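<tokenise_the_fold>
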Amino acid sequence: MYVSNFIPKLTGKAFCCRTCWLRPQDMEFFYVSLLSLFVLLVSLSLHFLFYKSKSGGTLPPGKTGWPVVGESLEFLSTGWKGHPEKFIFDRMVKYSSQVFRTSLLGEQAAVFCGAAGNKFLFSNENKLVQAWWPSSVNKVFPSSTQTSSKEEAIKMRKMLPNFFKPEALQRYIGMMDVIANRHFASSWENNDQVVVFPLSKRFTFWLACRVFVSIEDPNHVAKFADPFDLLASGLISIPIDLPGTPFHRAIKASNFIRKELVRIIKQRKVDLAEGKASPTQDILSHMLLTSDENGKFMAELDIADKILGLLIGGHDTASSACCFIVKYLAELPEVYEGVYKEQMEIANSKAPGELLNWEDIQKMKYSWNVACEVLRLAPPLQGAFREALTDFMYNGFSIPKGWKIYWSANSTHRNPEFFPEPLKFDPSRFEGSGPAPYTFVPFGGGPRMCPGKEYARLEILVFMHHLVKRFRWEKLIPDEKIVVNPMPIPEKGLPVRLYPHKA
């Protein structure tokens, strides 16, 4: 029987929720247990309050909140309320503008702030710090826990450059153009109103399926879409595997997707052997045909996990960016006009049926400045965790080995020290040499900078091209709330009224 089921009565008697009356010796045991629990909580609180580094140095200023829970609820709730930067800036003012201490997701943590913090972490990747993900991620991707996250990251980063460097991505532009054309024709045209966020997710997911595993049939793509939504929403969550929880739904979804991917992998092996598939057609073929330094090939489940991660990373963040581009262009007619003029010059230069190419993308300078300003104000990646590999000093404070370190995009993106009038939408910030180093970090930085940065740039620009050459639009909810969980999303999905351009 759980302690929470006991309800003491004012009469001095007690009963449990099942109405079974307790004997005096049961009551004595209950109160002793309750007192022990209280002492334990107080002891843990004092431990967190006066914890000192083993190296004897002074820890960063701050507080760790409640035992186990720490400040996680406040950290998450500021995002749910649409102001994820509040958690960071409140503590920067109260404790330190450089680094402060907290406890997040059950872990002792230090939050590094500002450009100096970003530079330190990005420059010391795999030296003083390494990537860290909450336990929920490892449980959703079980086969990847056979080796360390550091080893897995190194493996992936050896594979990806061949596909994500600009010269390799050039061959995908025409395909992106075709899919964008089909997407807008089927989901936007002939509609007076649309809800933008689900459609932007559909577009970026369709592209990811095509680029990574050569799935192009809309019906086949749709089969994956709903499970991927469940997986993404429960990936960074409290890892309670009980029916009805986001984490439970994420695990079920990942198992379903993994089985489907293994089926695709098996068929690809046959197609490669029979010459029906190309060794260079996508990342899946590359993974199947590439061995490690010992001549060992990846297992099918490991490949499925890698593809699973790529499909999530390859569409979730870009879909948020595309959605907010629609939002800001609706709010700022003068910015829309600049994008429209640039994109129509490109559209009018094309022969009928001619696809976009690399030269066209290079002409979209103002459009990309607009997209960057959107990424500054609504970064899909709010920040990321690292883990201290050893004790080290930062800004005069000791960071113990094993502590988790969090860097926040908003500590620079919305900081007037780096971006004057930070809430003002101003694409000119990205003209010339652009922002100072380590201040604009929507894709991270250092060795762990998102390898898909250039891929994201292409899909965002192709989306903008097809969007503005077809429509003007207005928001149907003028002051729609933005929630962050873990990416920024308009609460109602950003419904808009479309006004097609006259032919």
About this structure: DSSP finds 20 helices and 14 strands in the chain. The two ends are 72 Å apart (CA to CA). Residues 1-34, 46-50, 144-149 have pLDDT under 50 and may be disordered.
